[in-house]
């Protein structure tokens, strides 16, 4: 009796396709000012300690940018304090940190809010050395955060950038242009499949296109839905 076919891997970029998010692989369309600001701050060891806050809806690239800054600072051998909603029991502030990064602030529990406030105060007014940079992100402007007031007001007093997620028509246009530049044809059927089965933020879609182009060249096949399924099963 024949064995049933093995289930196909889940169609998501977390199966090993995605590299570490960086500032270089962030697609900035519509968010150039925020990206340039972060490049300047992350690339300058004498950076101003004025905090920065990013906000925008899901898929606008907030977490990508924070992780990209973390990688840029690590490349400079800088130490970073990191907290997101999955940091259930945040550690004490470390005075050796060169920056504090706070992601998904809108989801923080009371314990996380207390830790974030402590980190913020210690980063801005450290017992030793210069003030440290604080970079935070959430899905809404600071005034709308349902957080303790002393943390909420501090998050919003520095540089504030709203990140814009592209609409579907804009994503299609950018993706189509990128494919044309690679000499790759994407049918409407393939485009629909990419936009409904994978992460919809532009950086992830551009990464997917790069992976598909490479796989299509290695297998000498056009980019079709069967090719995408084959890549997910074999890569």
TrEMBL record:
Name of protein: DnaA family protein
Transmembrane segments: none
Residue ranges the record marks as coiled coil: none
PANTHER family: CHROMOSOMAL REPLICATION INITIATOR PROTEIN DNAA, DNAA REGULATORY INACTIVATOR HDA
Residue ranges constituting the Chromosomal replication initiator protein DnaA ATPAse domain according to the UniProt record: 22-85
Top-rank lineage group of the source organism: Bacteria
Domain spans labelled Hda lid: 169-232
Organism: Hydrogenophaga palleronii
Pfam families to which the protein is assigned, alphabetical: Bac_DnaA, Hda_lid
């Amino acid at each position: 009796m024949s064995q049933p076919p093995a289930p196909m891997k889940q169609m998501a970029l977390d199966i090993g396709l995605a590299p570490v998010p960086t500032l270089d692989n962030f697609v900035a369309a519509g968010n150039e000012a925020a990206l340039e600001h972060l490049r300047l701050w992350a690339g300058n060891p004498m950076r101003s300690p004025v905090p920065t806050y990013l906000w925008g809806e899901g898929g606008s690239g907030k977490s990508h940018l924070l992780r990209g800054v973390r990688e840029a600072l690590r490349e400079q051998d800088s130490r970073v304090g990191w907290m997101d909603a999955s940091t259930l029991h945040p550690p004490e502030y470390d005075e050796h940190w060169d920056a504090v990064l706070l992601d998904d602030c809108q989801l923080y529990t009371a314990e996380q809010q207390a830790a974030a406030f402590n980190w913020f105060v210690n980063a801005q007014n450290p017992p030793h050395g210069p003030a440290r940079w604080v970079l935070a992100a959430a899905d809404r402007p600071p005034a709308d955060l349902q957080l303790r007031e002393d943390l909420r007001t501090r998050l919003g007093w520095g540089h504030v950038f709203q990140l814009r997620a592209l609409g579907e028509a804009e994503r299609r246009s950018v993706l189509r242009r990128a494919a044309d530049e690679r000499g790759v044809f994407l049918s409407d059927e393939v485009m629909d499949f990419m936009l409904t089965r994978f992460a919809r933020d532009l950086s992830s879609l551009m990464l997917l296109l790069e992976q598909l182009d490479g796989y299509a060249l290695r297998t000498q096949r056009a980019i079709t839905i069967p090719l995408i399924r084959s890549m997910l099963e074999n890569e």
